[in-house]
Amino acid sequence: MELRIDKKKKSAARAVAKMYYDFKISVEKFENGLVDNVTEATLYTYQENKRYMEAIEESFNHSVNSYNKEKVWDWFYHDKKPEAHEERQLKSEIDMWMFYLSRELGYETI
Predict the structure, then answer these.
(1) CB 109 within 8 A of CB 6
(2) Are 97 and 68 in contact, with CB atoms under 8 Å apart?
(3) How far apart are CA 59 and CA 76, in angstroms?
(4) What is the per-residue pLDDT for 49?
(5) Rounded Cα gap, residues 93 and 67, in angstroms
(6) d(CA 93, CA 87)
(7) DSSP per residue over the chain, as a string?
(8) How far is CA 22 from CA 15, 18, 61, 80, 81, in A?
(9) Sign, CA torsion 16/20/21/26
(10) pLDDT at 107
């Protein structure tokens, strides 16, 4: 099953996904009380970062085959290249993930 997504929307979803660790660090700082001054703006930032982080996690868990999760994660976030025979499958898994992430974030898919 081929899922189609506009290149700009796929690029936007990929950019959000690449920021996962930034979102995670920000959320953990807030939850552990390491934020000096809690204002309405910092609370809003925390909520948005948490929403993005959860959207990335949920779309990843929903769309990537459990057998390939570690390999996809390592390739996407840690630039650990897969073996040649796995690359096509993992690229397909990442495309599926970006499709579901873009949908989760409210981007219109085609």
Answers:
(1) yes
(2) no
(3) 14
(4) 94
(5) 11
(6) 10
(7) ------HHHHHHHHHHHHTHHHHHHHHHHHHTT--SS--HHHHHHHHHHHHHHHHHHHHHHHHS-TTTHHHHHHHHHH--PPPHHHHHHHHHHHHHHHHHHHHHTT----
(8) 12, 9, 19, 19, 22
(9) positive
(10) 79
List Cα–Cα distances, 95 to 6, 14, 38, 65, 79, in angstroms: 11, 10, 38, 12, 16
- The Cα-based distances of 100 to 32, 37, 49, 94, 96 in angstroms read 30, 35, 18, 10, 6
The tokens for 31 are 């939850």
**Tokens describing residue 99:** 């499709």
What is the rounded distance in angstroms from the CA atom of residue 39 to the CA atom of residue 20?
23
Reported as a single tens digit per residue, the pLDDT across 60-102 is 999 999 999 999 999 999 999 899 899 999 999 999 999 999 9
Both structure tokens of 3 = 């899922």
Give the type of residue at 73: W
Residues in the chain: 110
